Amino acid sequence: MTGESQLNPSTGVAKDTFVAAAARVSGDGSLLWQRRLGKADHTSEMGRVARIQDDRFVFAGTEYRTFGPWPSYSLSLWLVDAQGESIRESKIDARSGEYFTVTNVAATIDGGLVAAGHLTRYTGTQFQPLSVTDGENWYTDSFLLKADRSGNFEWMRLFGGPDIDILTDAEPSSDGHITAVGQFGLDTGSKVENWILRTDFWGRTCGMRLGVCADKTWQDCEDNNPCTINWCDPDAGCTAPPLPDGSPCGDGLTCQGAVCK
């Protein structure tokens, strides 16, 4: 993370902002490369970084326009190669009144990644909700998000109840399960409790693992096609939903009709 001063084109007034940036150093501390990740007219805040398959790095954080209003914070995944060259930025747009916070990102057994954090939602009627302090209109749920090795979105699940629920860390295991830890009950006057969340490869807890997926492993549903999503439907079993045409699937390659070319 670094800082810079951005000039508002409408008023000419400068504003100090955060910019997500990445750097890599050698074993002796020499700078190998440095790259800006966020857009020039955006403020970007990086959460965590992880190394995934083929010596790629994924940086996860949030991004929003520097000069308001700020009706939402979107989630961004920045993929770069070992030389620091940008591969892709994947963006999960938040709806108005929704604000993503990323607390962790980790590599998964299939070469992809899982990101963890929380999504805060404002249900009131104010135009600029970040300036509003009416606590009864703010709610926070934890989330887990799965993407493949090219940054293509696969699934996202929300976890939580009526209180404020936050995940602070998530760690995928060698068998595909995901274990996450966090806290809940952070609203005013409430006792803070720690909690542990354990899901299968598709983000399902034991209470959600119904039907034929209850005994499936991630390998059971892997078709080795980079243009489909590894998915298990509780009724239909293993399925392979195609990624949208144009989704990246390799160096300079994109998906066309579920075929990488």
Distance between the termini: 36 Å
Report the β-strand fraction as a percent range: over 45%
Strand order of the largest sheet: 5-6-7-8
How large, in whole angstroms, is the Cα Rg?
A: 20 Å
User: Helicity range of the residues?
Assistant: under 10%
- Output mean pLDDT: 87
Kindly name the structural category.
mainly beta
Q: What is the number of helical segments per DSSP (H or I, 4+ residues)?
A: 0
**Major β-sheet profile:** 4 strands, antiparallel
Number of strands: 20
Q: What is the H/E order? A: EEEEEEEEEEEEEEEEEEEE
Structural key phrases:
261 residues, mainly beta, 0% helix
What does the secondary structure layout of this molecule look like, with pairings?
Elements: E1 2-7, E2 14-19, E3 21-25, E4 31-36, E5 42-52, E6 56-65, E7 74-80, E8 86-92, E9 98-107, E10 113-122, E11 138-147, E12 153-159, E13 165-172, E14 178-184, E15 193-199, E16 231-233, E17 237-239, E18 248-250, E19 253-256, E20 259-260
Antiparallel strand pairs: 1-2, 3-4, 5-6, 6-7, 7-8, 9-10, 10-11, 11-12, 13-14, 14-15, 16-17, 18-19, 19-20
